[in-house]
Amino acid sequence: MSGGLVEAKLAELGLTLPEVVPPIAAYQPAVRSGSYVFTAGQLPMVKGSMALTGKVGAEVSAEQAKEMAATCALNALAAVKSVIGDLDKIARVVKVVGFVASAPDFTGQPGVLNGASELLGAVLGEKGVHARSAVGVAVLPLDAPVEVEIQVELVAGA
């Protein structure tokens, strides 16, 4: 099967792994340390641009932001693949950290980050279950509504 089981699951869900989003500053999209891969914060970029910008709870709805968090998670998987070559080498997602550019009275950050968590679960099954932090912030790079980073553990010998 071309692309492996994880990419077959992505296709079954109607998703395509995007090209890795190029860094907008001095960092790498993902790095490996031992049996772990850590991604940089991934923005909800699609084909080089963001469909929406602004604060969640103001210019961007919580539901739109949840969809964008899923896009961030998909971009994070692409960054992981760029380092390990095959997403089937993922033993599990260990941690997800998400940042939500929030209007002052918006408190639904966990619901927004469910977009990333649900995508990882749908794609990876039990391997996608993780610890998570959902943080509200004043502003994100490029006025993105949401940013997500993931940490994955690799299967032994990968």
Unreliable runs, pLDDT <50, ≥5 residues?
none
Main β-sheet, spatial strand arrangement: 1-2-5-3-4
What percent of residues adopt helix (DSSP H or I)?
25-40%
Strand content: 15-25%
- What overall geometry do the principal axes of the alpha carbons give? globular
Q: State the total count of DSSP E strands.
A: 5
Number of helices, counting only DSSP H or I runs of 4 residues or more: 3
Mean pLDDT: 95
Radius of gyration from the alpha-carbon trace, in angstroms: 15 Å
Terminal CA distance:
19 Å
Structural class: alpha+beta
What is the string of SSEs from the N terminus onward?
HEEHEHEE
Biggest β-sheet description: 5 strands, mixed
Could you please describe the fold and organization of this structure?
The protein contains 3 helices and 5 strands, in the order H-E-E-H-E-H-E-E. By secondary structure, it is of the alpha+beta class.
